[in-house]
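Lab notebook, design round three. We kept the backbone fixed and only want residue identities now. Task for the bench partner: fill in a sequence for the structure below.
Input structure tokens:
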């Protein structure tokens, strides 16, 4: 929020970051001489060269590969810089470290090097920046970045892997350092639920196990590319919790098999990983996944979904569905419901016993029911129902006497 502008047009901002309001002055800084890019910028972690960062040009080259770079470059070329960046320095002798806005700085540098003559010469040489005070700490830095990139949208979004890495390192710690805040605080500053924070933290921890398993110098980039799949696997029903029991040797083989599936690209997209439990319960499907055929999970997931939507699968859920409904107090079932179920049962019976009328199945059931009748059952019968039963039984006995081979 802009609170004041002095006679020279310099703006002062008051922004609430964390638990306090900060006074930030706006400066126009030379993009070549007065600012430096931050090597630990979370956005860059999956784009940096494996050998590490050697110079500012390395960082600029990495930024040029990030999502949204070309779109932002065109906007700055056409309209100029729209929003100020955030910079910080510990003392007046240091350059300003770009904490947020590195892509804009990189683009301005690139355009300034390009337009050395003509109307646009010097147009891109300076960047508008909000200057954070020297006592702006690491915790406040994390809150600032979370506010912009996790709650942000468009080109400012970091992506799921970077978000998860950022959350993990903030609430767990990195390089042996203590965490900057707990999960509840992170959720509050991000305006997300604590379960959302915990889920991403767990998913990143799972990706670390994957990186260790594949033992590849490009491990973080591979994990970032497959992160949506790894996340789904880590929270798959039943199997997910077993995969995350890293100290339980009983599940080491299972985790090895699943990581090999990800390495071999058997999952085409993350939704297929949601069927991990169904795959595991089907020996043939599990063996096919372990075989490592690329994208085979796509076909197997289609088979699972097809079976789940079949009449047979739906019928198997009816008893539990009715039981849960009764337990919730939804007992408004009537004779029409019983009749509908009986019709369905008759059709199934015809299918199971081709050529045999449902009457024979019903007769067997009635015989068993009469055999198991108790004194209490008989005493509870109304007189009219007993009369109807006796008339039906007399009719049936008459038919037996006249037409049955048994007679």
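Proposed sequence:
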């Amino acid at each position: 929020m802009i609170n004041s502008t002095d006679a020279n047009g310099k703006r002062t901002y008051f922004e609430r970051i964390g638990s306090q309001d900060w006074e930030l002055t706006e400066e126009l800084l030379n993009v070549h001489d007065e600012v430096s890019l931050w090597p630990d910028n979370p956005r860059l972690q999956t784009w940096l060269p494996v050998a590490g960062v050697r110079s500012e040009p390395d960082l600029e080259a990495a930024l040029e590969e990030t999502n949204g770079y070309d779109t932002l470059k065109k906007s700055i070329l056409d309209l100029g810089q729209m929003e100020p960046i955030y910079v910080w320095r510990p003392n007046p002798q240091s350059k300003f470290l770009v904490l947020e806005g590195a892509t804009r700085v990189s683009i301005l540098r690139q355009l300034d090097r390009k337009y050395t003559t003509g109307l646009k010469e010097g147009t891109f040489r300076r960047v508008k920046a909000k200057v954070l005070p020297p006592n702006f700490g690491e915790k406040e830095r994390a809150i600032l970045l979370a506010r912009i990139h996790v709650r942000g949208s468009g080109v400012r979004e970091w992506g799921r892997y970077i978000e998860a890495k950022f959350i993990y390192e903030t609430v767990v710690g990195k390089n042996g350092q203590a965490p900057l805040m707990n999960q509840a605080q992170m959720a509050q500053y991000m305006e997300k639920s604590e379960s959302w924070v915990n889920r991403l933290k767990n998913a990143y921890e799972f990706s670390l196990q994957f990186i260790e398993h594949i033992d590849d110098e490009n491990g973080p980039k591979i994990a970032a590319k497959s992160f949506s799949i790894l996340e789904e696997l880590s929270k798959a029903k039943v199997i997910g919790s077993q995969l995350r029991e890293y100290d339980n040797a009983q599940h080491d083989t299972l985790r090895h098999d699943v990581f090999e599936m990800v390495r071999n690209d058997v999952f085409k997209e993350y939704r297929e990983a949601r069927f991990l439990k169904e795959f595991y319960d089907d020996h043939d499907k599990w063996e096919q996944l372990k075989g490592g055929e690329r994208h085979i999970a796509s076909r197997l997931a289609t088979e699972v979904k097809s079976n789940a939507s079949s009449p047979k699968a739906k019928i198997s859920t009816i008893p539990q569905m009715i039981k849960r409904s009764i337990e919730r107090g939804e007992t408004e079932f009537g004779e029409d419901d019983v009749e509908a179920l009986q019709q369905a049962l008759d059709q199934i019976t015809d299918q199971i016993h081709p050529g045999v009328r449902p009457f024979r199945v019903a007769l067997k059931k009635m015989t068993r029911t009469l055999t198991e009748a108790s004194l209490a059952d008989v005493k509870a019968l109304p007189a009219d129902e007993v009369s109807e039963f006796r008339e039906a039984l007399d009719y049936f006995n008459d038919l037996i006497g006249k037409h049955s081979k048994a007679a």
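Keep this in mind before ordering anything: Strands lie at 2-5, 11-17, 20-30, 35-37, 85-88, 96-100, 126-132.
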